[in-house]
Amino acid sequence: MHVRTGDEVLVISGKNKGQRGRITRAIPETERVVVENINIVKKHLKARGQRQRSGIIEFEAPLPVSNVMLICPSCGKASRTGDRIEEGEGKLSRRKVRFCKACDAAIPTANK
User: Fold this and answer.
1) Rounded to two decimals, what is the model's pTM?
2) Structural domains in the chain?
3) What is the mean pLDDT of residues 7-22?
4) CB of 79 within 8 A of CB of 102?
5) What is residue 110's predicted lDDT score, i.e. its pLDDT?
6) Residues 22-51 as b or e (16 or more Cβ within 10 Å = b)
């Protein structure tokens, strides 16, 4: 997937088109992401036992990862991303990094 948990993204299609948010959870098995305060849905719950109450709850539903675009931290634009291998000091210091295709800057790994 081209986005990770903690990345800031722009929704490019669907009912929330044009909204920005931070990814709270990535689900690579189904290629979906949960973005905070985006795609809020309501679910009607029936009480199951005495401890769980019934009612209408609101929660963030997962979006397909193809509906979001990463916002580059350096240029601030929503852009496509690519992967490349960066060389460093030493024999085993090669690592794969993401980069913004608009400004060609490396995208740092977001902290969780």
Assistant:
1) 0.81
2) 8-107 (2.30.30.30)
3) 95
4) yes
5) 61
6) ebeebeeeeebbbbeebbeeeeeeeeeeee
